[in-house]
Specification:
The chain is an alpha+beta fold. It has 9 helices and 10 strands. The strands form 2 sheets. An 8-stranded mixed sheet has the order 7-6-1-9-8-4-5-10, sandwiched between helices. Helix 4 packs antiparallel against helix 5 and helix 5 packs antiparallel against helix 8. The longest helix has 43 residues. The N and C termini lie far apart (75 Å).
């Protein structure tokens, strides 16, 4: 039988080992429990993201203008074709009558001697051919220009900012409440004001993504624009501020937003959707300077070139921002600046 002292001596190393193991595992266990608690809280409370959108489009008006212009062109072309054939028939009758009553050249033996009248006719014919050639080339260039003008550029620009850019949220909210979203002038003002506000908050820029698609017609451009708009709006769990085609709608934010904001939201994401006539060339974005160049080019668009504009941002709630986890989930193409 072992004495009590011998038992204590044998159990002491075991107790020391258990104590050291507890001290080593105490911090990781606490961290794990805290992570689980945050995850549970995230899944139960952070089920939504507020979003705002403002803008409009003039695709329908352009389609009606294009159809009316094409119909007028076809009617004018048929008119000119008719006049051309009628005049040509008159010329033929005139030529026949004159050729019978006049002798354009004299025939001596087998030699043909051209008169001054013949040289004049040849000169006029050459000049006429030259004029027709010039008109044909000009029409060809005009047709190419019209084809380029009928093409459409669709731009999607996304920028994430640090959550400290609360004044940027306020700017977008105020613009959305008072903006004219039913005219091309209003579209340009929305684009300009939003881009300028973003440039003023350049110190908060975090990442960006630029997508440009060149469509062959306005119709295909409209389809792509609608598709991109649907995709971006579907990322919002709740549209709390909407101003589309001068239809303003506000929705009260749910309580879970403010609760979740205390858990550490960190970002704001703004998306620009722009449709323009013609081909718009923009540089790729590799640094903040490139992003500023793109924003400046967008603000320089003419009213008549703008077919549609939408500005979307999340979160719309002033005291709310977006977590880095949600940004990675919904905006995976964003690249750090």
């Amino acid at each position: 039988m072992f004495s009590s002292e011998e038992k204590n001596m044998k159990q002491k190393p075991i107790n020391d080992f258990m104590t050291k193991a507890y001290e080593l595992l105490k911090i990781p266990i606490v961290s794990l429990l805290l992570t689980v608690a945050i995850f549970v809280s995230y899944s139960s409370q952070a089920l939504a993201a507020s979003g705002g959108i403002m803008g409009g489009s003039s695709f329908s008006s352009y389609d009606s203008y294009e159809s009316s212009s094409s119909s007028s062109e076809s009617s004018s072309s048929s008119y000119y074709d008719h006049s051309y054939y009628s005049s040509s028939s008159d010329d033929e009758s005139y030529t026949a009558s004159t050729s019978v009553g006049s002798v354009p050249y004299k025939k001596e033996s087998d030699n043909v001697i051209l008169t001054g009248y013949d040289y004049l006719c040849l000169f006029v014919l050459f000049a006429l051919c030259l004029v027709i050639f010039v008109i044909f080339e000009s029409s060809k260039k005009a047709m190419n220009y019209q084809n380029d003008a009928s093409k459409t550029s669709i731009i999607k620009l996304q920028v994430s900012l640090l959550g400290m850019a609360r004044s940027f949220q306020n700017d977008l909210n105020q613009n959305a409440e008072r903006a004219d979203t039913s005219t091309q002038k209003g579209y340009r003002n929305i684009l300009t004001e939003s881009a300028l506000s973003l440039i003023r908050h350049s110190q908060y820029w975090s990442s960006s993504h630029l997508y440009v698609s060149k469509e062959e017609s306005v119709g295909t451009g409209e389809k792509l624009f609608s598709k991109l708009s649907f995709e971006e709006r579907s990322k919002f769990d709740q549209e709390t501020l909407v101003n589309l085609e001068n239809n303003v709608r506000k929705q009260e934010i749910e309580k879970q937003y403010s609760e979740y904001s205390e858990l550490g939201h960190e970002y704001i994401v703004v998306t620009f959707l722009v449709a323009t006539l013609g081909i718009l060339k923009l540089p790729s974005i590799n640094n903040p300077s490139d992003l500023e160049t793109v924003l400046v080019k967008l603000t320089c668009l003419l009213e008549k070139e703008i077919l549609a504009v939408q500005v979307l941002w999340t979160p719309q709630e002033e005291n709310d921002t977006l977590s880095s986890q949600r940004v990675l989930q919904d905006y995976p193409l964003l690249k750090p600046l």
